[in-house]
Amino acid sequence: MKTLIAVSVLSILSFGAHAERQSNEPIKVIEPISGLDSKKIELGKTLWFEPRLSASNTISCNSCHNIAKGGVDNLPSSIGHKWSIGPINSPTVFNSDLNFVQFWNGRAKDLQEQAAGPIENPLEMAFTHQLAVDTLQSIPQYRKWFQQAYGSDNITIDNVTDAIATFEQTLRTPNSPFDLWLKGNDDALTTAQVEGYQLFKDKGCTACHSGPLAGGQMYQKMGLVKPFTTDNPDVGRKAITGSDFDKFVFKVPTLRNVELTYPYFHDGSVWDLQEAVEMMADLQLGQKLTKEESTKITEFLRSLTGEQPQVTLPHLPPSTHETARPNI
Questions:
Q1: pTM here?
Q2: Are residues 103 and 218 in the same domain?
Q3: 1 assigned binding-site residue
Q4: 64 known member of a binding site
Q5: At which positions is heme c 2 bound (predicted)?
Q6: 110 vs 119: CA distance, rounded Å
Q7: Do residues 58 and 89 share a domain?
């Protein structure tokens, strides 16, 4: 009986310590999402891989946000319609529903608004919303799927973007080694990763990179302490607000799965994660890290790689004689 009581007390104390760790740490656990409409998810997944939403019939959402590559394309800037080079690095779509705004400059308030943008962007998919809807409407299987998901086979751009956004919400990456450590598994991180996390906090990195995403919850100027030199012409939030105060101000990116989402920064100018760590400490915090410090912080960042989404490729339905032909 005494043994049972002792074990129970230890279990309670252990649970309390683990709960305290989760509540006290600036970076929080990523959890899977549930409760979404399965028909909308499946439809959204098909639309995610659908290149006929682009003028050339060759570019899909997955072209720039490849689910097999950390939700990015691993290019400094994405390649769009007729080999156009985009103006900015493609951010990951993994866990993106947890961002407080979408796009680097925050011009979209949520995933549905974000999903509408690339379709009409002349440098990306170079289509129009009406042509996209007409294309889907010309394919009987899509009309059937929209009927099942939305109760009507009259396809609208709002339903298109809602389905895509619903699918995107499923692209969570839970159970990273760091998440397991937060939940109480002390063996989930190496000694170097634990020390790297402590350095990450001590150096001030969590001032911007906190919450479930280790980022994605605020804007910050790129080159806060020292100027950031780049050939990229993007001015950040200034393009939205018109204010010089917002020049080179961008949404702080998530550090979840960051070892997979190279090259780094809005201009995609840095390919090595440790180099990116050292640059950020210098430009944003005014600190020169030793190689040992940057190595440990980099090892910690690798612990933020979670379980990657397991997505089965859909079979796209055939076009009809009414479906728009490619504009190559």
A1: 0.93
A2: no
A3: no
A4: yes
A5: 205, 208-209, 280
A6: 16
A7: yes
Annotated ligand binding at 125? The verdict is no
Q: Is position 259 annotated as part of the catalytic site?
A: no
**pLDDT per residue of the chain (328 residues) written in tens, 0 to 9:** 556 554 454 445 555 666 788 889 999 999 999 999 999 999 999 999 999 999 999 999 999 999 999 999 999 999 999 999 999 999 999 999 999 999 999 999 999 999 999 999 999 999 999 999 999 999 999 999 999 999 999 999 999 999 999 999 999 999 999 999 999 999 999 999 999 999 999 999 999 999 999 999 999 999 999 999 999 999 999 999 999 999 999 999 999 999 999 999 999 999 999 999 999 999 999 999 999 999 999 999 999 999 999 999 999 999 999 999 999 8
Per-residue burial over 142-164, b if 16 or more Cβ lie within 10 Å, else e, is bbebbeebbeeeebebebbbbbb
φ and ψ at residue 122, rounded to 5 degrees:
-65, -20
Is 209 part of any known ligand binding site?
Answer: yes
Q: Is residue 309 assigned to a domain? A: no
Catalytic residue, from 31, 113, 120, 124: name it: 124
